[in-house]
Amino acid sequence: MATLAGKTILIIGGSSGIGYGVAKASLLSRASKVIIASSSKAKVEAALVRLKGDITVAGSTVEGTASGEVVDVKDSKNVKELLEHVGEIDHLVLTSGDPVRTFFPDMDLDANKDIFDVRFWGGFTAAQAAKIRPGGSITLTIGQILVKPKKGWSLTSGVLGAVDSLTRGLAVDLAPIRVNVISPGLVKTEFLDGFPTEMRGELEKHANALLVQHIGQPDELAEAYLFCMKCQYITGQRIEVDGGGKFI
């Protein structure tokens, strides 16, 4: 069975949510070095403490180490500096994303043009600057809104579509480095805290209608990212991990 033994993994957005789940799963899969990067130094430090505790609770002995870095994904220069600082890596994972702030038709476009900065331009810049070792990979993150848009989410859907297309372009440009994108459905993370209260209530109801009948957990999503890192025969693909949401 493939593991991440001896591998170095950089997770941008790794201090919480899905990214944190990927960091923990990578260590449990024998990664040699896991680097989590986030815009908040306090969150990075808290995540490192949490990682140590969660792994202890799991009763597993890990050989790898975890460290943290601070990065502003909206600042391309800062992203490039981070990639230069960490040097060669085996796998790059990006799970960062801004919460939805306003919805169509009330959205002020001028105030929301930066919505592309994190997922699209941040991902592009990181992929361009990363020093990936042979056999390595890059995994981006979008969301179910791409394939099943909801009323008011048109701009967000457009951003996710751009990243989905970017994935296939990067897979060609960076070959044989592999590039894939994960498209999660409803996942219980801190990201939901940015949604309006009434919408969070609707999301909880929606969970009961999913084929798996529960909201996804970060640890469940992490398995898809590990697959993309381990499998040497997948690139340019979108993997939908949505609990059967597309069927309801």
TrEMBL record:
Sorted UniProt keywords: NADP, Oxidoreductase
Key word NADP present: yes
Gene Ontology molecular function: any one: oxidoreductase activity
Family, as annotated: Belongs to the short-chain dehydrogenases/reductases (SDR) family.
Keyword Hydrolase in annotation: no
Native source organism of the sequence: Sanghuangporus baumii
Pfam families: SDR
Protein name: NAD-binding protein
PANTHER family per record: DIHYDROANTICAPSIN 7-DEHYDROGENASE
